[in-house]
Amino acid sequence: xxxxxxxxxxxxxxxxxxxxxxxxxxxxxxxxxxxxxxxxxxxxxxxxxxxxxxxxxxxxxxxxxxxxxxxxxxxxxxxxxxxxxxxxxxxxxxxxxxxxxxxxxxxxxxxxxxxxxxxxxxxxxxxxxxxxxxxxxxxxxxxxxxxxxxxxxxxxxxxxxxxxxxxxxxxxxxxxxxxxxxxxxxxxxxxxxxxxxxxxxxxxxxxxxxxxxxxxxxxxxxxxxxxxxxxxxxxxxxxxxxxxxxxxxxxxxxxxxxxxxxxxxxxxxxxx
Length: 272
Known about the structure:
Blueprint: H1 23-35, E1 44-49, H2 57-68, E2 74-77, H3 87-91, H4 93-113, E3 118-124, H5 127-136, E4 147-150, H6 161-164, E5 171-175, H7 180-190, H8 201-204, E6 207-208, E7 220-224, H9 244-257, E8 268-269
Parallel strand pairs: 1-2, 1-3, 3-4, 4-5, 5-7, 6-8
Helix pairs in contact: 1-4, 2-9, 4-5
């Protein structure tokens, strides 16, 4: 699948970095101008949500890897940290939920103007929380195509049912038992993006709560770390899944062709 796109406002990914508290507002408006300028009949947009550090070099590496892997069209990075990155962004639950609402409205605006345009989401670490919350806030019938979560900093038992109802295809979850410092010790000490002091899903994978929709969870494809990925620069740590070569060889084929060159496992039900 080739993703062809034309936008009305040319921009560079680096221009999305900001230093002020109002960064999220300006970025949202800037993105909106670009995203709703997609040519009618275009085939796709990839919206990337970075971690609590905001727009960093690793996010640019992901974009480059997607390009190297053949993903064409529009790829946008939404910096949801409002110029207040790090632990403040991790702890700002109320603000993060508000940012998720902005992301949701961006998606709705695109789908209203161009119903045939597909939207895919990629996310890293805390950005996966924003992805899930944005999906939860979409109106009934508004769908994205696929979601890729790399090292999600959500709690494993977070109920994804409502978010999954707005995903037409799959939610691919890359997790690694070797992400011990950030999503192991760090998450237990400082909390996950949904404010639980547990090892995060990006370390141990998601589990399906007993009350969750089993059928909806069939959309979740868990992809544990494979040591063979070291040849692509992915050592299994917190940023390994963002490395350019890894994204080119493993992530891009998933977005383009749903080609899974990796071992997967279904989400297991949480123990009672």
